[in-house]
Amino acid sequence: MHRKPWSALAVLALAQFMVVLDVTIVNVALPDIQQDLGFSASGLQWVVSAYTLIFGGFLLLGGRVADLLGRRRVFVAGLLLFGVTSLVAGLAQSPEQLVVLRAVQGLGGALLSPAAFAILTVTFAHGRDRNIAMGIWGGLAGLGGTLGVIAGGLLVDSLSWRWVFLVNVPIAAVLALIVPMFVAESRATTPGKRTFDVAGALLSTGGLLAIMLGVIRAEPLGWSSFEVVALLAGGLALLGAFVRVEARSAAPLVPLALFRSRGLSTSILALALNGGAFLAMFFLTAIFLQQVRGLTALETGLQFLPMGIAAIASAVLASQLVTRYGTRPVQIGGAVLSVAGLLLLSGADATGSYAFTILPGIVLFGMGIIGTGTPASIAAVADVRHEQAGAASGVVNAGYQVGGALGLAVITTLATSHVEDLIAGGEQPGTALVDGFQRGLLFAAIFAAANILTAIGAPRLRPTSEQLAEAAVAA
After folding, report:
1. Any idea which of 153-157, 192-196, 316-320, 420-424 has the lowest mean pLDDT?
2. Higher pLDDT, 38 or 462
3. Core vs surface per residue 372-385: b (16+ CB within 10 A) or e
4. Residue 396: pLDDT above 90?
5. Phi/psi of residue 213, nearest 5 degrees
6. How far apart are the C-alpha atoms of 234 and 142, rounded to whole Å?
7. In the structure, what pLDDT confidence band is assigned to residue 149 with cuts at 50, 70 and 90?
8. What are phi and psi of 41, to 5 degrees?
9. Lowest mean pLDDT among 131-145, 154-168, 323-337
10. Amino acid 3: pLDDT
């Protein structure tokens, strides 16, 4: 059967758009989810973290499985898993059910997203067409994030929070049916040992889960409690075992030699910090706007809209500035804008004007988060051998997702404990929530400020057009 590459791109892009959309669409539904299912203040962040952590933790394994078992086959399997878990998540009756289903949904995303990217790279020949396709693919992140908050608001206000999950079901079903019409099957032909390295994926994700749970449990139990210390120590031990397994594996998920690249190493740290600051800001601000300012979900989404527009504009501008001035100055500038935006936003209270207290902060932050991420993504692949560019992009993407989940856990735990301390001391709940929101954004600003130091230690590179295209996908 003859298959046109641009038709295949449309199918792949719609699936990727659904996965990206799911990261932000849930945020505006969080207050309704909390009220309906009875989530605790500290437990609510698992609705976001369970998805992003499993998604990031299994991205590399998903790519390996797709290469060995067939990219189209794994893509369809990921679509079906994503769709089925979205259906059941929309029907969840308890916090525990929803968190588990969000984790499985993240696993579906970790299968279909790298499989889709691999199909894209083998569908388009190296050169202009592939660069255009990658540019479209990379642009989905900004567009999906922007539309996600609006779509989430519309669904929650007009139907219920359950539809932020149920909306995925018909999309996944239709895509699974039409994929064979437009996408050819393909497998990797690389010689050598062909293993999945399941042990590596389980050790890395298990270690990160243990550390994140330890951070969250530190809020009610204290950092010196046996449970917290055991979780943190166990997590570090699992990550240490992961490094040993990867060093000895004939076909590792993460080739440790990649980390000899200074550009890649600093970029992973930069994007992990970026992910933590972004997810925490989104999470805290969505709750603040609805629970403190009394906005509807749709009104909340509309207030986030300028940030998405600023992010898309910044992506275009950042690429041009990197071409002219190199990666390091642009990354430093983006980090400074992120800090400035968070500091401005942290001054918001229950009654201040949106135009003067919230809008400037989210616009600056939207520009800064992309201004930091674009040059970091470029530096990540700039001095990596071409045959390892795909692995490098996968590591960078996983670093962003995992860093976002861990950063969200740390920042929301610190903010929540501050709110509970204030209430225990006799403060009114409304005032305590404002103080907790402001405290959380200040911690997010620390994450963003750390990126200034990361950028100073990063190489200053002037990328080629091919590296710009690869970075658009990794961002």
Report:
1. 192-196
2. 38
3. bbbbbbbbbbbebe
4. no
5. -65, -35
6. 36
7. confident
8. -60, -40
9. 131-145
10. 59
pLDDT at 470 over 70: no
* pLDDT bucket at 2, cuts 50 / 70 / 90: very low
Asked if pLDDT for residue 305 goes beyond 70, the answer is yes
Backbone Cα Rg of the chain: 21
Residues 191 and 8: their CA atoms lie apart, in Å, by 27
> Which contiguous run of DSSP H or E holds residue 299?
helix 297-325
**pLDDT above 80 for 377:** no
3-state secondary structure 401-426: HHHHHHHHHHHHHHHHHHHHHHHHCC
In the block, tokens 């062909």 appear at 194
Query: Computed from CA positions of residues 87, 88, 93, 94, in that sequence, does the dihedral angle turn out positive or negative?
Result: negative
Burial (CB < 10 A; 0-12, 13-18, 19+), residue 353, is exposed
Q: Which residues are CB-neighbours of 260 under 8 A, at least 6 positions away?
A: none
Find out whether 214 and 228 touch, Cβ atoms under 8 Å.
yes
Helices (H) and strands (E) counted in the chain, each on its own, are 19, 0
Position 341, amino acid = G
Give the burial string for 268-307 (b: 16+ CB within 10 Å, else e): bbbbbbbbbbbbbbbbbbbbbbbbbbebebbebbbbbbbb
Determine contact, residues 239/201, Cβ cutoff 8 Å. Answer: no
Residue (of 28, 33, 57) closest to 43 by Cα position: 33
Q: In terms of Cα–Cα distance, which of 50, 121, 134 is closest to 92?
A: 50
Torsions phi, psi for 40 (to 5 deg): -75, 165
Kindly report, residue by residue over 178-208, the tens digit of the pLDDT.
888 877 777 766 555 566 677 887 888 888 8
pTM of the model as a whole: 0.79
User: What is the 3-state composition of the chain as percent helix, strand, coil, each rounded to the nearest 5?
Assistant: 80, 0, 20
Residues 445, 247: contact at Cβ < 8 Å? no
CA proximity to 267, closest of 66, 463, 3: 463
Which residues neighbour 472 within 8 Å (Cβ) at sequence distance 6 or greater?
Answer: 134, 135, 137, 138, 139, 319, 377
Q: Please, what is the end-to-end C-alpha distance for the chain in angstroms?
A: 34
Model pLDDT, residue 202: 83
Nearest to 297 by CA among 185, 159, 178: 159
DSSP label of 258: G
Measured between alpha carbons, how far is 369 from 310 in angstroms, rounded to an integer? Answer: 10
> Cα separation of 141 and 56, whole Å?
15
Residue with tokens 């401005």: 344
